[in-house]
Amino acid sequence: MFGDTLYQWSNSSRTEIYEIDTVDLLKNKDTIAVYYSASWCGPCKQFTPILAQFYTDMKKKGKSFEIVLVSRDRTPEDFVSYYQKMPWLAVTLDNADSSFQITSEKFGIKGIPFLVVLDGYDASVYTVDGREKVLNDQYGLEFPWRPRTPAVLLKRLIPRPLRGLVARQFSNAKRKFAQALIALLKSVAPGRLLLKLFAVN
Question: What 3-state class would DSSP assign to 67?
């Protein structure tokens, strides 16, 4: 999604940009937000300071949280000038266009600014309305705005190291159930009816 490396400021003064391994920067983060923005976009320039304050506040609260900028700026100079206003990470210029193309359809991006908030462990989507969430919850009282579905609530009860194992076991169970159902239908349904039941339109 982001490429092998990301940009990170060398210090709080934001005078030098480093390229660092993406995995090293994002591992063990509970929440990752992806921010699509550009210096030529008026609403982006209004929202970025608000998001920067939110980011700083969440970090002070000890939240395991990171933002990654996917820039839509048209020149390196515009990118650097605008990125200096941001304390978070950024997709490298070489990967910005491909990252946008890969994710824009997936997240339904119709315009910028756009902020999508993801589970840092499995990249499942918490919300694609991150901008509205930040504006309406600037103190982060409900952050990271997880969907309140039974599946998400159940997942939170499972320790992170076990989630992959549980997901595989659940997938295997679904496959075995489907096989058993097909076998049962074969025993009670005529062949043509069975073909209709499982026909792919």
Answer: strand
Query: Residue 65 pairs with which residues in a beta bridge?
Result: 31
- DSSP 3-state assignment of 119? strand
- Coil, helix or strand for 6? strand
Paired with 32 in beta bridges are 66, 118
**What confidence tens digit (pLDDT) does each residue in 128-176 have?**
999 999 999 999 999 999 987 655 545 555 665 665 666 677 667 777 7
18 DSSP 8-state letter: E
Distance of CA 69 to the CA centre of its chain: 12
Q: Quick check: 76 pLDDT over 80? A: yes
Distance CA 147, CA 192 (A): 42
* Length in residues, the chain: 201
What are the contacts of 13-19 at 24+ separation with CB within 8 A? 14/83, 14/84, 14/87, 17/80, 17/83, 19/92
Dihedral sign, Cα of residue 78, residue 112, residue 108, residue 8: positive
Residue 41 backbone phi and psi in degrees, to 5: -95, 115
CA distances from 83 to 74, 144, 167, 193, 195 (A): 13, 24, 38, 61, 57
